[in-house]
Amino acid sequence: MSNIWAIAKREIRAYFNSPIAYAVIAVFLLLVGFFFYSLIWYFNAQAMQMAQNPYYAQQVNINQMVFSPLFHNMSIILLLVLPLLTMRLLAEEKKIGTEELLFTSPVSVNQIVLGKYFASLVVLAAMLGLTALPSLLTFVYGNPEVVPWLNGYLGLFLLGGSFIAVGIFFSSLTENQIVAATLTFGALLLFWVLNWAGSSAGPKWQGILNYVSFFQHFDDMTRGILDTKDVVYYLSFSFFGLFLTHSVIQSRRWR
Amino acid sequence: MIEVQDLTKKYGDLTAVRNLSFKVEKGRIWGLLGPNAAGKTTTMRILTGYLPATEGKANVAGYDVFEQPDAVKKAIGYLPETVPLYPDMTVSSYLDFVAEIKQVPKGARKAAVDRVLKSAALDSVRGRLIKNISRGYRQRVGIAQAMIHDPQVLILDEPTIGLDPAQIIDIRELIRGLRGEHTIMLSTHILAEVTQVCDGVVIINEGRLMASGSLEDLTASFHDRDGVVLKLRRGGEAAALFRSLPGVEVSTADGGGIRLEWSRGRDLRDQVAALVVEKDLGLQEMRPVGLNIEDLYLKIVSGGLGQ
Fold first, then answer.
1. d(CA B7, CA B58)
2. How far from the centroid of its chain's Cα atoms is residue B45's Cα?
3. Torsion, Cα of A92, A94, A95, A98 (10° steps)
4. How far is A49 from chain B (nearest CA, A)?
5. Per-residue pLDDT tens over the stretch B183-216
6. DSSP states of B26-65 as a string?
7. ipTM of this model?
8. Does A254 touch chain B (CB under 8 A)?
9. Domains and CATH numbers, chain B
10. Are B196 and B79 in contact (CB under 8 A)?
11. C-alpha distance from A15 to closest chain B C-alpha (Å)
12. Who is most buried in A111, A118, A245, B51, counting CB within 10 A?
């Protein structure tokens, strides 16, 4: 465990000693802020109109009208920015020769991969945590439901964790960071849109493709539904990504 | 302390190391010599557990490299060919990180960092970012990280590359100072370094062992004659005089002077000296004839003679 922490600490420091983390977090916050502002503005306008009709007034729900679409927007932004956060994790070690230090130290490949994964999770948590601050204002001035809101953040964290695992995997395949980021982005997008193909693929494939796609599981969570099968899906996805990374590193050394 | 038996490493169709066997005794400094692409770096990478071997056995510090890699990794310090540095870290935070992953206990880490900063003369740059220090300093940081956990065995791939002459002398001095306590294997292209620092050598070419042993033994096995080179102020008739000594072969030495050689085991230096004095030849210089390391290396690499 101390080895994982040692690797994670160094990675976190590397993120914040360079402009990477600041740039990624700043862009993420800027975009999320823009969407949050637009959604709140739209919600206000809608709420004023709906308040005039007692039937519609009952249906005004900030969770559904602001947070649910906001979480969807955030997930797309994560898909765009997280590959930039993960691209250097293993590719850079290979390029500058520091992997030789890591692999000749009494640290296992698992510990190295997990250390790097946890470091990225910390940055992800910081990104999500900072976006929660403006949302908290809605709790001051309104009465959103807390559980679905927390559920959405849990969904984003699990989804981001899966993105990071995919990113680490592609970073282990190459020493070129641009290639790693491009492959990660392509793979994430593919997993995102798999359920689109599902609708035209017949009932048997539709179920499978829907299950494999990120979208279906995330959609449930943004609507406040916490299903263990969604949590298991994201955790298994992350585990699989990390397992593949481990296998790539091992097989490269044995070749 | 380091023992390699029939080690072979193949990369696809390319065989980088073939049936390599050698042994380095505890507390000795051994040089690994060979032309470019001879398999030096591959051999070192296998010994450090970075690469697995295709066949063969390797034992370092009493542990099997392939069966007990963690124990081996704890026992060795390794300076790879490309110094493994994180440019965005300061020298001391980098060394602290290396100490942590080399499992130096938390309480002893600061002392370990201070010790290697001092021994590699890095104190003046301890707070500087690695990307901002000169190549010579980076090389020394690489050596410092290899020593941070005070390992029994040090494996150094070209430790003095990129250093200026004064730094080379310092680093050689540092390495020599580790003899006895540590077993060291270093690869180098500088043959003079071998004679100045190493007790023995392993010479490989195209992945094969060409020779291994102590410098004295290797020199002896490749050169079965002793002798001296003389420079004389009045040496006109000297050649004929020395020929009168039984068993002495007289020839002209490279760079002038007279080369006298006799079969190994005899020592005719007294007689030679007596003759010089008796005939008042005006002695300017007298040095032993020996095979220097360059001759030895070229002879072994080009000619090829097993152990």
1. 7
2. 17
3. 80
4. 55
5. 999 998 778 888 888 888 898 888 888 888 887 7
6. TT-EEEEE-STTSSHHHHHHHHTTSS--SEEEEEETTEET
7. 0.87
8. yes
9. 2-219 (3.40.50.300), 225-289 (3.30.70)
10. no
11. 10
12. A245
